[in-house]
Amino acid sequence: MTAAHPPLAIAPRNILEMWADAVLLLRRHPFQFVISALVLTVAGSLIESAWGWVVTTLVDESDPEPAQLAQLGTLSLLLSLAVFLTVFALTGALQAVLVVQTIVGRPVTIRAALRLLAPRIRAVLGVTALLTVVPQLVLLALIAVLSVFIWQWLSSELDAFLATGGDPVLDSVPPSPSEALIAVAVIVVPTFALLSLVWVVMALALLFAPITAALEPLRFGGAVRRSMLLVGNNLWRIVGIILLNLLIALPIILPLFVPLVLIGSIFSVATADLPSWAQEVMSWPFDLMIAAFIAWQVTVLVLLYIDVRIRQEGLAADLWQRRTAASSGTPDGGAGDPTGDTKNG
């Protein structure tokens, strides 16, 4: 670290200080934080583009039925969510190491971060796989349940219509779609709410999992349990900060979202005749903006994790020890545990 880039403070932070430090880190080290997130975002975009090409080819060649189109749409939705969560998890693991390096005064480089992350890679990949698969299973269950009830409602309406000979006028009391809809909604709405609650609880429980897998000497299962423990012990503070973070982020995102949608629509029309690879390359500026936002959000999350441990576990002493070692020129020996903390092994 140079005098122009002093280490971040080793102290508890409020949400405003987390935002300010996250922006500061992205300004100081744009390559390490933003470009690393961009590489993962572009990789995810390439996967989605390849899937889009497969879907387009299937639709053009086989002329699928509406049910098959619905299945392809569901798979596309699940893949998009899986790609986003994978990018989030891997970015979180890498940037967790980078943030700790800035705090203890070590060189902030991708190579050093990958060297420190290497002993933890199995746990990181395990957590990433968990985040990639489990939320999709919950979402798939939600879609399946809603599809079943909607199909039952449509079938009952069709049966009622056919029972009148196809002419509701012949029946003194024609079928009421509103009554059928209410009857189905009584079951669908609680089911939707329950599965949504399960998804939110699961997402909260795994919130710190990529970070704990990267920073603590734990295996896959231990990293998951550790994340659940940290979130459970600080649930309302974490939920409050996340909600506040979303509320503050929305006024920043929405003014940019509408112009981006308009530009994207014009862009898609203008590049319709270009090869798919050229369209993908020309979409990278949009990926850069997405990567910058992901990098900022993930950095705030890492700072929140460090704040929780400073407040409740005395992590500040370990970080001060590592900063002192860094300032004295002692080689970094924390390859297996970038935080320097061994209490959880």
Task: Kindly describe this structure.
The chain is mainly α and 345 residues long. The chain has one domain. It contains twelve helices and no strands. The chain starts with 14 loop residues before the first helix and ends in an 18-residue tail after the last helix. Residues 325-345 are annotated as: Disordered. This is Membrane domain of glycerophosphoryl diester phosphodiesterase. It comes from Nonomuraea jiangxiensis.
State the main characteristics:
disordered C terminus; transmembrane helix; mainly alpha; 345 residues
The counted number of beta strands is: 0
Q: Helices and strands, in N-to-C order?
A: HHHHHHHHHHHH
Low-confidence stretches: 168-175, 333-338, 340-345
Main sheet makeup: none
Number of helices: 12
**What is the residue-averaged pLDDT?**
77
Q: Report how far apart the termini are.
A: 29 Å
- Using the CA coordinates, give the radius of gyration: 25 Å
**Number of structural domains:** 1
> Can you give the helix content as a percent range?
over 70%
Specify the overall morphology.
Answer: globular
Assign the structural class, choosing from mainly alpha, mainly beta, alpha/beta, alpha+beta, or little secondary structure: mainly alpha
In short:
The protein is 79% helix and 0% strand.
Task: Provide the fold topology.
Blueprint: H1 15-28, H2 30-62, H3 66-104, H4 110-117, H5 121-163, H6 177-205, H7 209-215, H8 220-233, H9 235-270, H10 276-282, H11 284-313, H12 315-327
